[in-house]
């Protein structure tokens, strides 16, 4: 079947024809939108005589070259696309197609979201709007004329500047938009609807005035203030840190309710999932405030890293995504707490990316083989991609890295380029050799670095030997050594870092680890030291190091580097949980409890960091440490340790809780950190299940003046399964049943209840008026939260969790394949569990494989899982 053919990176060929100008005329109608596309086509390859255009779900009305309609034998419709006789060097191509936006439940191309028309074209959605060269290395200047009913769709938007608008007969109107920058089709956007408009402006560094417009559902203006303020911070930060200024006179952001992802960076007209824009203290948590700032930043930063310089082909996706995630991480870090940002990113890598590397979808950050491109918007391409950029930043330093960025834009502004072009710019601008480093782009898998240490007291020398080994992955058997930057500190008995000296010279604290095995010798070491390796997670690797729990506890409580303290704590907690799993320990050690007590009592430490230090490694992260781990035993052991911490340290936790329980709600860094610590304490106390906690949770739930505190109390009751949770859930539902975004939190609470009959509650929740399987936010909040956030129940030994997820996937497969493919991930991870569960999981994957209408999205994942 042609549609199921994978594409190879090595098969890239420059396009035989290109299109440098496109005029689109879109007459909007629910079921019969008519699109007239007039392209200026140029032949690049003199030998070519046939033009193949991509197309998908289109009804062709007519096709003409230079104004002459083509006869039936001058074109062919094949595999959704269009093949034309085109033995001309240059011509005008006019194609009229008809589409059905109201029945487009896949939410790709042009579709209806609530009452509005909107588009999503990345990666290959433009071909659902018209026949086109729908590939990122074809850059055209767009002019778009939009026409619709005026009363229902007062705003008609597209990329660039509005150059004309007016009224038409029969209550219709039109607007014409012109985008001066050539762009690939995936950056095209069109929106038509009735909105409230929040307006502001930004004066660029060079003094230009940029109009900022945020379009939201009517009645939600005040919920857009935070996104608007975030946008202005992002614009300023990009000028200051990256020397990059916005390039159009208008920047529009539209919030829509039906959206497959978080947001999209369309030139001058970002489209956002409403949950990534709307926030007020009553409905959004601190995490959501933070996430909105970071997504607004991410999409804005794409204007240079993605739009001005784009990808040559989709295998190069990390060129724009890894780099833009790195930039949004730096933005959050510069405006907030660097260590908190780093911990968030590392948690993401360890719990999701390492798991992806270990599973059937393993791929390098620049994949070699792709069946459905939508399946490669992954934590590997995004987050590991950002880690790879970060390693270059570590190796070059900020100054040379910025020289590299400058050279990258000098060379490639207005072009569609490759990851290799980016590395070459970094290399040429800095003089740092990145030849070996490039392997990070082609090799998948998580390297395991093993450290062995020796202290030579008589010579005052410390010897460090590192070996690296990357285990085979599903996609690649053979692995080679990588260029790994190892940030190191040597800590003395007091936990203080000593100066690094080698051969009598002070040396930098980043080691270049490039071979399978390497040894470093440090001089002037007066006594035994503990090596703190991969500080700030200087490389995305797993570390194996013999280090005693006593040393970990010492670093956790007294280390001078915040990240190292957190990391030591995570390692210590992991050791203790696994010791309980293995039956080597029946409870957490005094050493651990003392270290946590010290952290809890530390008045100088940032409360936000303490909150993170009190969070145990997730079951997903722990499961990777053991093969065939017993799901239930792991869950119970982790929970038991948490409950013990709550019981043994109840006074300290309660004191911290009270201390951080502020009066009036404020939305700024310090207040957010204090709420995080307060709620971390409450959570642990709730797991310990003391009667007094019940009251504490109940009071916080009832009296909270903000969603962070209210939801934290509800979540604590729910995870602790305190009796009051039933009433609290009912009262939450009664209060918020008309607000779908808030109801998503309720759906997730229902889905994540740690109890045996959770599926019955989920089935009831699916009947709720706000539940809609066609809305990806609802699906993720309920079904996704169950499969990925309630590991123990998803893996129930009767197979009910697997069956339930599969039932939903079968339905979603026909509605929205992309959404289905996003939530199948937990079902693919059968390697992590015991044989009986493996059998049950594979049986459900077989059920999916047997579907006659299995989508390409699911086919790729299911077939890889069963291979
Ligand atoms: C922050 O990358 C980090 C990642 C594609 C859609 C947004 O700008 C994007 C789009 C997916 C997955 C994650 C993100 C995005 C998409 C995203 C958003 C904010 N180009 Br799919
Ligand atoms: Zn992005």
Secondary structure layout plus pairing:
Elements: E1 7-8, E2 17-27, E3 33-43, E4 50-53, E5 59-65, E6 68-69, E7 75-78, E8 81-85, E9 90-99, E10 109-113, E11 116-120, E12 140-149, E13 155-158, E14 161-167, E15 172-183, E16 190-193, E17 196-203, E18 209-216, H1 225-242, E19 250-256, E20 263-264, E21 269-273, H2 286-301, E22 310-311, H3 317-335, H4 338-358, E23 369-370, H5 379-412, E24 416-417, H6 419-430, H7 439-442, E25 448-456, E26 461-469, E27 484-491, E28 501-502, E29 505-506, E30 510-513, E31 517-522, E32 530-533, E33 542-545, H8 549-558, H9 562-581, H10 590-601, H11 607-613, H12 619-623, H13 631-648, H14 650-660, H15 669-688, H16 691-703, H17 707-720, H18 725-736, H19 740-752, H20 758-765, H21 776-789, H22 791-794, H23 800-815, H24 817-823, H25 825-828, H26 835-849, H27 856-866
Parallel strand pairs: 2-12, 18-19, 19-21, 22-24, 25-33
Antiparallel strand pairs: 1-23, 2-3, 3-9, 4-8, 5-6, 5-9, 7-8, 10-11, 12-15, 13-16, 14-15, 17-18, 20-21, 25-26, 26-31, 27-30, 27-32, 28-29
The chain binds ligand 7MF and zinc ion.
Low-confidence runs of at least 5 consecutive residues: none
Distinct ligand kinds: ligand 7MF, zinc ion
Helix content: 40-55%
Mean pLDDT across every amino acid position: 97
CATH fold-level label of the largest domain = Immunoglobulin-like
Strand order of the largest sheet: 6-5-9-3-2-12-15-14
Kindly report the name of the CATH homologous superfamily of the largest domain: tricorn interacting facor f3 domain
Cα-to-Cα separation, first versus last residue: 19 Å
What's the multimeric state? single chain
The level 1 CATH classification of the largest domain is Mainly Beta
Percent strand: 15-25%
Number of helical segments?
Answer: 27
Radius of gyration, rounded? 28 Å
- The tally of strands reads 33
Structural class designation: alpha+beta
> Which architecture of the largest domain would the CATH scheme give at its second level?
Sandwich
Morphology call:
globular
């Amino acid at each position: 079947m042609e549609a199921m053919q994978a594409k190879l990176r090595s098969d890239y060929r420059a396009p035989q024809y290109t299109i440098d100008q496109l005029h689109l005329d879109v007459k909007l109608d629910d079921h019969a939108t008519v699109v007239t596309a007039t392209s200026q086509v140029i032949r690049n390859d003199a030998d070519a005589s046939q033009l193949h255009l991509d197309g998908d779900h289109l009804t062709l009305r007519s096709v003409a070259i230079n104004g002459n309609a083509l006869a039936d034998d001058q074109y062919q419709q094949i595999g959704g696309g269009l093949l034309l006789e085109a033995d001309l060097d240059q011509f005008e191509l006019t194609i009229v197609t008809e589409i059905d936006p109201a029945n487009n439940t896949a939410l790709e191309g042009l579709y209806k979201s609530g009452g509005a028309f909107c588009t999503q074209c990345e990666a290959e959605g433009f071909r659902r709007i018209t026949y086109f060269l729908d590939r990122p290395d074809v850059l055209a200047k767009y002019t778009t004329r939009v026409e619709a009913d005026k009363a229902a769709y007062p705003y008609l938007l597209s990329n660039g500047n509005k150059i004309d608008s007016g009224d038409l007969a029969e209550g219709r109107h039109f607007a014409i938009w012109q985008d001066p920058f050539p762009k690939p089709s995936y950056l095209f956007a069109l929106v038509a609807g009735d909105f409230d408009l929040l307006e502001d402006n930004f004066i660029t560094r060079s003094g230009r005035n940029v109009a900022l417009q945020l379009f939201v559902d009517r009645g939600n203006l005040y919920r857009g203030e935070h996104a608007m303020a975030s946008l202005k911070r992002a614009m300023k930060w990009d000028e200051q840190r990256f020397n990059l200024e916005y390039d159009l006179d208008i920047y529009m952001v539209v919030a829509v309710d039906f959206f497959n992802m978080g947001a999209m960076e369309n030139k001058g007209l970002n489209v956002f999932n409403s949950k990534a824009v709307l926030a007020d203290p009553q409905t959004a948590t601190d995490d959501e405030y933070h996430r909105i700032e970071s997504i607004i930043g991410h999409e804005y930063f794409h204007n240079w890293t993605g739009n001005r310089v784009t990808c040559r082909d989709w295998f190069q996706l990390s060129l724009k995504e890894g780099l833009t995630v790195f930039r949004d991480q730096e933005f959050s870090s510069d405006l907030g707490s660097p260590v908190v940002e780093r911990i968030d990113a590392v948690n993401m890598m360890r719990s999701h990316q390492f798991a992806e590397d270990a599973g059937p979808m393993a791929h390098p950050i620049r994949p070699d083989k792709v069946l459905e491109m939508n399946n490669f918007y992954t934590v590997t391409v995004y987050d590991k991609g950002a880690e790879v950029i970060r390693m270059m930043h570590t190796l070059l330093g900020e100054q040379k890295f910025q020289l590299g960025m400058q050279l990258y834009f000098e060379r490639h502004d207005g072009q569609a380029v490759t990851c290799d072009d980016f590395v070459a710019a970094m290399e040429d601008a800095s003089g740092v050799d990145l030849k070996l480093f490039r392997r990070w782009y082609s090799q998948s898998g998580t390297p395991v670095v093993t450290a062995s240490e020796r202290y030579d007291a008589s010579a005052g020398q410390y010897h460090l030997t590192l070996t690296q080994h990357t285990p085979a992955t599903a996609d690649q058997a053979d692995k080679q050594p990588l260029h790994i930057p190892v940030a190191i500190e040597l800590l003395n008995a007091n936990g203080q870092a000593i100066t690094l000296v080698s051969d009598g010279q002070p040396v930098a604290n980043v080691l270049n680890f490039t071979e399978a095995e390497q040894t470093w010798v440090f001089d002037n070491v007066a006594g035994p030291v503990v090596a703190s390796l991969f500080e700030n997670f200087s490389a995305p690797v797993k570390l194996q190091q013999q280090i005693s729990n006593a040393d970990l506890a010492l670093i956790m409580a007294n280390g001078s580097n915040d990240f190292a303290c957190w990391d030591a704590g995570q390692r210590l907690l992991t050791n203790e949980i696994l010791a309980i799993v293995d039956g080597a320990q029946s409870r957490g050690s005094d050493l651990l409890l003392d270290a946590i007590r010290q952290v809890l009592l530390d008045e100088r430490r940032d409360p936000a960091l303490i909150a993170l230090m009190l969070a145990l490694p997730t079951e997903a992260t722990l499961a990777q440490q053991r093969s065939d781990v017993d799901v239930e035993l792991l869950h119970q052991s982790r929970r038991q340790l948490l409950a013990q911490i709550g019981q043994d340290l109840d006074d300290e936790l309660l004191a911290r809780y009270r201390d951080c329980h502020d009066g009036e709600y404020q939305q700024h860094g310090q207040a957010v950190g204090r709420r995080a610590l307060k709620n971390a304490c409450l959570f642990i106390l709730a797991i310990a299940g003391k009667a007094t906690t019940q009251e504490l949770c109940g009071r916080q739930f009832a009296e909270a003046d903000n969603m962070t505190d209210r939801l934290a109390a509800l979540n604590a009751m729910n995870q602790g399964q305190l009796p009051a949770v039933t009433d609290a859930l009912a009262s939450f539902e009664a209060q918020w049943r008309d607000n779908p975004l808030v109801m998503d939190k309720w759906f997730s609470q229902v889905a994540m209840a740690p109890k045996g009959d959770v599926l019955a509650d989920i089935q009831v929740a699916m009947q709720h008026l706000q539940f809609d399987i066609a809305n990806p936010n609802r699906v993720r909040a309920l079904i996704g939260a169950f499969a990925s956030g309630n590991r123990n129940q998803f893996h129930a030994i009767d197979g009910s969790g697997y069956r339930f997820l599969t039932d939903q996937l079968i339905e979603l497969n026909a509605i929205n394949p992309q959404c289905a493919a996003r939530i199948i991930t937990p079902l693919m991870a059968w390697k992590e569990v015991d044989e009986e569960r493996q059998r049950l999981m594979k049986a459900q994957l077989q059920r999916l494989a047997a579907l006659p209408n299995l989508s390409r999205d699911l086919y790729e994942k299911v077939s890889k899982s069963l291979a």
